[in-house]
Amino acid sequence: MQVTDPVCGKTIDLGVAEPTEYLGWAYFFCSDACRSAFLTAPDRYAPSHRPPMSRDHVSGPPRSAQ
Matching InterPro entries, A to Z (predicted)? Predict the structure, then answer.
């Protein structure tokens, strides 16, 4: 399965990407530089249309698919 880095738009394999949680959603990054950019200004990169979710909800595949 592949995911998209929200900072640079690069498509990366889920097994290689490290997740970072923000407001209950998991975001995946191709590099430490993209992760740092996201953490500096997460509202710039996180979609604003997502509904509030419980803390135990993350985006991406279900745990059974990982």
Answer: Ferritin-like_SF, RNR-like, YHS_dom
